[in-house]
Write the structure tokens for this entry.
Amino acid sequence: MREVKKVVVAYSGGLDTSVILSWLKEKYNCEVIAFIADLGQGEDLESIKAKALKTGAKEAYIKDVKDVFVSDYIFPMLRANAIYEGAYMLGTSIARPLIAKTQMELVKEVGADAVSHGATGKGNDQVRFELTYYTIDPRINVITPWREWEFKSRTQLIEYSKKHGIPVSATKDKPYSSDRNIFHISYEGGILEDPWSEPPADMYTMMTPSEKAPDRPIYIEISYEKGNPVAVNGKKMKPLALLQELNRIGGENGIGRVDLVENRYVGIKSRGVYETPGGTILHYAHRAVESITLDREVYHMKDSMITKYAEMVYYGYWFSPERTVLQKFIDETQGNVTGDVRLKLYKGNVLVAGRKSPYSLYSQSLATFEEEYVYNQKDAEGFIKISALRLKRFQEK
């Protein structure tokens, strides 16, 4: 077993990481530092810090990264329209690189020689954390309890926590886990592992169930400048405040619920339930502005890269050279993605009701079915015949 003197743990206060603090001290006889990233998870982080100190951490640090999370991680991802497997908006995936990066900054600050996280050996988060660690410092010691310890299930962790007097919120009757930040909340495990079972009726956090949402639709307007949202209903806002406002509006109207079985990077299919109210609204709004401001071929080229970009985020390659290069291309396309979008929100649905831009490429005089003098319809005949040459030739064979 390697010798470790001081380890910084990515600590959430949940079952896994609470047990990890105690286990690391027993197993490695080392100094344990708890690191808590403030990502807007809506929890009392000071009480989580106190819990870490009570559970065995020598020191505990809270780092507020909400602003940088929205502006430097969420917004670039939204500019890419990134969605994994057609549904997942990557709320957990995009948070992990920032947590790991900030954790590594703390490693340097406190003079630690190791890091640890609570991700399981079956999940994606272990990859996301560790790829970031090694990108920043290839020589860092990484301790992975779920791949090392004797526990085989969260039920055993609950038993260990009771034996060691570690307070945890998970129980054998309600063992599913959740992960929340300013962008979304995810639920997985436990009673959600049966993909045929509907999630519990009370399993809502950021949003109202659609059937309980208001019976009348509401309209909102979102303004964009160079691919980024800058105002809601004419009111200019900074990125964090803007996302918080759209979370509120979207949540009240039942926006952003997703229930899917996804393909993990390690090859396992996993069922997850997500709520992403503000992010869902911004996704529809951004695509609406792009629809009138991007050239057709640029639009199609960018669209063809969504799957790859989303995979990079999901798999944990946020700091990879390929994601960096792709981001530069995406951001280059956003120069004229400026304008306003009007959206209609109703019981979980987001409908585009209008879009306009000073850089709009849409021409009503070209698109109209009424009489016009710009487009000569006879010109289409030669275009079609030339396009059909290879098809005719193929049929002749």
About this structure: The domain at 6-173 is CATH 3.40.50.620 (Rossmann fold). The radius of gyration is 24 Å.
